Amino acid sequence: MDLASQLPMLLGLAWLAPLVSFVAILFFGPRMGHHGKNAAWVATAAIVTSLGLSLAAFGIWLTAHPVTAVSHDSHGAAVDGHAADSHDANEHESHGNEANADHGDHADHSGQHAAVVPAAYSGDWYTLYQGGSLRLSIGWYIDALTVMMFVVVTFIATCIHVYASGYMHDELHDVTDHEVHLSDGGHLHRPGRFPRFFQALSLFCFSMLGILIAGNLAMVFIFWELVGICSWFLIGFYFERKSASTAANKAFIVNRVGDFGMLIGLMALWGALGTLHFADSPAAGAGGQTAPGLFSLVRPAESGHALQVPDGMVKFANASGVSQIALDNASRPGDGANEIASRIRDWRSEGYGRWLLFIAGVGIFCGCVGKSAQFPLFVWLPDAMEGPTPVSALVHSATMVAAGVYLVGRFYPVLTPDVLLVIAVIGGITLFIAATIALVANDIKRVLAYSTVSQLGYMMLALGVGGWSAGLFHLVTHAFFKSLLFLCSGSVIHACHTNDMRKMGGLARVMPWTAGTMLVGCLAIIGAGIPFVIGLSGYYSKDAILAQALSYSQANPSWSILFYAVAGGAFLTAFYMFRLWFMTFAGAPRDHHIADHAHESPNVMVVPLVALSVLAIVAGWTLPGGFGLANLLEQARPAGTAATMSDSFLFGNLTVPAEHLSHEGAIHVTATLTAFTTAAAGVLLAAMMYLWRIISPEMVASVFRPIYSFLANRWYFDELYNAIFVRPVFAVASLASGTDRGVIDRLIDGIAWSARQLAGFDAWIDRNLVDGLVNATATATWNAGLELKKLQTGRLRQYVMFIVIGTVALFVLASMLFRAALAG
Amino acid sequence: MSPTDTLTQPALWPLTAIVFLPALVAAFLSLPIVPKAREEFIRWTTLLTTAVVFVLSLWMAVPALFGPTGPAQFRLGDPSMQAVVKLPWIESFGIEYLLGVDGISLPLVVLTTFLSMLAAAASWPISKHVKAYSVLFLLLVTGMLGVFVSLDFFLFYVFWEVMLLPMYFLIGIWGGPRREYAAIKFFLYTLLGSVLMLLAILMLYFTSDLRLLSDEQLVASHVVSPSLDGAARTTALEAVRSAGRPLHTFNILALAQIGQLPNSPFAAAQVWGMSLETWAFLLLLIGFVIKVPVVPVHTWLPDAHVEAPTPISMILAGVLLKLGGYGILRICYPICPGAGLSLAWLVCGLGVVSMVYGAFAALAQKDFKRMVAYSSVSHMGYVMLGLGVWSAVAGQEYRWDAWAQGVNGAMFQMLAHGISSAGMFFMVGVLYDRVHHRNLEEFGGIFGKMPVYSGLAIAVFFAGLGLPGLCGFIGEVLVTLSSWNYSRVLAAISAFTVILTAAYILWAIQRVYLGAEYKGPHGDHLTPITPRELAIATPLVFFAILFGVAPQILFNYVTPTVNRQVETLADWTRRVHDAPAAPAVAAVQQDMAGQTAR
């Protein structure tokens, strides 16, 4: 078996293992041991299997495509080696040859980059719909990014399954939910739901892995919705609580708002291009030819993988031009098609289809805005913390919410500089707003939730400014340290039975492991390290983002605000993360009742913390041989995206600088120093306020009262949305319902009433007219005779007039009848 | 299409048996020898009859299940009419007993027999006049099946009316408190539709002329039975050719052939400033969209559903609404293509308005069943949109596949909605049987009390929500994606509806199933689901999942026929509509040749 068939098999099985566990627990969950205790083992076994298979795939991948050092000046050549390796993947044979042909041409650096095609394997498992040339299917697209994400997701999921089997043990027996007040004043007693939790978790893992392996956007959308519904189940796990079920609904509906945009993006692609596949599908096109996928349609190999509006979009946008030619050639379709094809180049240069490509990109990004909780749809994520903490760690920080970033990364070759700017700006706004709210939140999980939103904003911004590898690198490192932070917070909540940091303090003494690992997480997220020497994982990824943002700012001075957003965000992150750590673990206990009862969590919970903190430290490192995440990611870099890209369409001249430029010289130094300074300043300020108490937080809050309450109320986003979206929707809903009853039914009832009146009138006629028909006829005849007598005037002119009127009337009547008869 | 296959030999029995067995049993049950008091016997007879009909339809549709095939079994991948039954009926008007199934009607027939069986099982709680109920129920089944398999327009109309009356009584006698109002409303709306339809049928009949068709077309449309060969065929064809006056026809297939002719008499005849084909299209459309129903002729639906007993609601939502979509697909578009093309905006517009309006109205409902009824209005809007998106026009280089995708999506949506809406109404019925109210504000905490039922119900509602992996998703996504090529505005609005759908379904689930405690009356009656209810709910959930995961099972039937029809009409657009006069083209060429010569 070669790589092209091994990888989909291994990852396909890794993908399906959690589904098996889901089905098993669905049907047999409650019978798995006492109160379904063994369901945890079934689910964990499934995800461990997935992890094993993913690691196997990873190993195979590394054997075939060894990760080597990518030094900045020989960048192109190093990756070229991989492109040549992909010869064994028959899917990419043509591309491989293309890359080969360019091997000799080392002179032109950018041309070199443009020619690089990442090693990738793609294919279809089965077809959902096929009609004509249109095909929707379930398939795979596997490159270094897929393999890496599989390992990351399954690893974190494994940690969290193990952790949850300890954390959720309350559900093993009957539960009294103290947050639910019944009408009789008591609390709710209910049976535990231990297996149901793992059932949903397994389904989630299956759906999440489905997004990662998806070979086309339709499949992404399918699993996109499925992770959404899993998230609905998990947020609403305590569904007896009104707040939990409301938060679950809010999450799903807000996500659907994003999906609305995503659907538009899908339509723009599907309608004009007729495919949603990422890669080319051999022998799927007309007459067994290769059907080109999105990537090669938008970045054709013939033009060196430079971004261009694909033919289909040009034609679609100029439908009137196409229509004219097609109409002229309606009886000779072949000639028409040829003429249209010959005109496409001209139409493209006239700018047809650019809007469509922009809409497609922004549309797909809308879906990512919903899923990755970006401004303006981030409001659901903090509420999602109603779910159990392991869910917050897995679904709402490390994996599902990162799916949006992953999709932007996957879809990156199709994004124009204008779309990228939109992404960067949305990311920048998000990271700033969320960070400011995190400054004042007191619920430990909400601080982390806003921190997640903010970090996702970082990733989006990074992708938007051209930092493809920086954004995805941060996605991976963040997954490790944020799930670590959430699990630590879960450990704290487990010990204290409260989320309120104001009641904590001094917990480091009683929970040393939790405190220590959480400190690692905090240091990782702020990007701590010794500049230019070594650091935690966040140090590398955050530096890369800063450097790319700086590079972008220098290339586009009018958008340099993006760099300041990143730098300011780094300061805020450092401040609120250490505020959290100091408030929770440092100083003296503020609530002795809680502090006395607190205890370190059991080993089943501590071990995952340690495992994750090790990765939070080392995930960013590059080994001497060149092995490291950053270099691994470079293997998956989409064709043509390594080069600088410029365009001027909607937002003026935009230059997206090549990413490798940010690793060089002054930019790198400035970025590293900025990152270090801002982070240090943040930590220092947090220490002054919450550790050494030099500045009183209360005093700061009262001095900046309006700002404080503005932030504490989360910028009033919920109230705003309630006023401008939710209430109008309900108003329209009752209007529609009212129209039915008040207008349409009134009308119908009115018609029915009239019919009844008519029937009554008819009956009246029967009684009074038909019964008296004889009399009436007689009277009428008598009267008619009298009347007719008056007509007999003897005047010829009047007679003629009567004849004319009669004839015309007869003619009109006859012609109407005749036409109707002709017709009918 | 080709008559070479001798397997098209008319086989009278499978389709006739499927259609008339219920009516026969109904006739038997109505005899005085069946005592009224033996309710269990009557119920079982009804259930068994529907089960036999279901198995028969399955025997036709899935030969693989039953071993080697008989000639009347369905051949997958063959887009043409199969198992055709052709007998003269009222010869002086050329009315025939003409039945047949193809990829469009067969799945709907199976859906009907399947849902009839489940509805018969769901009829157990009905204890009032069981005998009369069963008789009417079985008559209704005959009417519905007859509409789907009729290929003669007159026969179609007869079945259409046959279906109407039992429905009126089933709602009017076995319904809820406002049953009479609802029944009359249903009756008047539908009657209006059928009167207009009759008008259109007569218009088409008196304008049609079989002599316009070629020999191949006459055979393909079963005017001359393909089973005749040699001399018999020649004689039959000669009879048509030698007729001295126009040969009118009710044959739906022949009418479609005539309507698509370049010199279609339907397009040529003018009535009050519009072509006859436009009139016929509009009249038929009104008749069909009342059934679908679309806004603004939808208000019979919520009332009928709220008042109808649970099994009748299942039939109403699961099958009756599909008749409208089926009629548009089978009759309006093929027979009146010109009007279909110029009025596509109307069909699509009605669809999108229904989609959005129905979703908004569903959001505002306080009655559980009414909410589900409005969700039907919204979901059937997708069917209209999918059927209407005539995007195979010049600007799209006459590419037919986007439109075919819409029509296939609409067909799938009809079948999926048949399963999910019947399921939703059944789930509401299960609760209503226990607590006798449907007020959404007075539920809550059902999940805690009836976990198995709630799990199944949530699955069914998710199918209605259009969740991937369940049947509702495929149809909606295909229709939505296809509509972009017809109109970007309509496409955007239809995509917008997904938000509203999620909102009203999830909100209803939250209010009914989630929460800590039940807030309404009769809380102690909330007993776990019974085996009978489980036997009805489980197949619905099973098929909702099966068709969601493997939609190809249905598409294997649907796509060949739909694609051929759409391809034909796309070709018609280019050949007949956009390049009507070949001589004109020749003249231009001559002109150009003359210019060059000069």
Question: How would you describe the overall organization of this protein?
Answer:
The complex is a heterodimer of chains A (about 800) and B (about 600). With about 800 residues, chain A is mainly alpha-helical. Chain A contains 32 helices and eight strands. Chain A has helices at about 5-30, 40-65, 75-85, 95-100, 110-115, 145-165, 195-215, 215-235, 240-275, 295-300, 310-315, 320-330, 335-350, 355-370, 380-385, 390-400, 400-410, 415-440, 445-465, 470-495, 510-525, 535-555, 560-585, 590-595, 605-620, 630-635, 665-690, 695-705, 705-710, 715-770, 775-790, 795-824, and strands at about 120-130, 135-145, 175-180, 185-190, 530, 535, 645-650, 655. Chain A has a two-stranded antiparallel ribbon with strand order 1-2. A two-stranded antiparallel ribbon of chain A has the order 3-4. Chain A is globular, with a radius of gyration of 35 Å. Chain B has a domain at about 345-585. Chain B has helices spanning about 15-30, 40-60, 105-120, 130-150, 155-175, 180-205, 215-220, 230-240, 250-260, 265-270, 275-290, 300-305, 310-335, 335-340, 345-365, 370-390, 400-435, 445-450, 450-465, 470-485, 490-510, 530-550, 550-580, 580-595; strands spanning about 80-90, 95-100, 270, 275. Chain B is about 70% helix and about 5% strand. The termini of chain B are far apart. The model of chain B is unreliable at about 1-10 and about 580-598 (pLDDT under 50). The chains are: A mainly alpha (about 800), B mainly alpha (about 600). Chains A and B meet through strand 1, helix 8, helix 9, helix 12 and helix 13 of A and helix 6, strand 3, helix 15, helix 17 and helix 20 of B.
